[in-house]
Specification:
Shape: globular
Radius of gyration: 14 Å
Bound molecules: adenosine monophosphate
């Protein structure tokens, strides 16, 4: 999508700090990290949010979850980590391209809401 921030990042029209890339997935450091490790993992195909996952595009989501342990290991997250996705208004999703936050490197707060 031409007006999507993360599509522009994937296309290298906007710079980012790459962590991982393959044919279906791109991962890069969050510009405003909320933990010592804060990586965003996105499908290269535009999916607006978790609410847009379906039988046609779920393979790229499965790929994301295959690579998360590899990224976590590469980032040294041997003591655990958190993976979250914000969806829609109530989920406070600010960028409308599906992304998973990988957070770690410290003991994270228990509270989610
Ligand atoms: P969410 O609020 O779940 O939609 O998360 C969007 C995330 O994108 C936030 O954590 C932002 O800090 C991050 N973000 C926004 N713009 C950029 C950018 N240009 N490069 C890296 N991360 C970004």
């Amino acid at each position: 999508m031409s007006d999507c921030l993360f599509c522009k990042i994937i296309a290298r029209q906007i710079p980012s700090s790459a962590v991982y890339e393959d044919d279906a997935v791109y991962a890069f450091r969050d510009i405003a990290p909320m933990a010592p490790v804060h990586v965003l993992i996105v499908p290269k195909e535009h999916i607006a949010s978790a609410d847009g996952i379906n039988a046609e595009n779920s393979a790229s989501v499965a790929r994301i979850f295959e690579v998360i342990p590899k990224i976590a290991a590469a980032e040294g997250l041997t003591n655990g980590y958190r993976v979250i996705t914000n969806c829609g208004e109530d989920g406070c999703q600010s960028v409308k391209h599906l992304h998973f936050h990988l957070l770690g490197g410290k003991k994270l707060p228990e509270t989610m809401a």
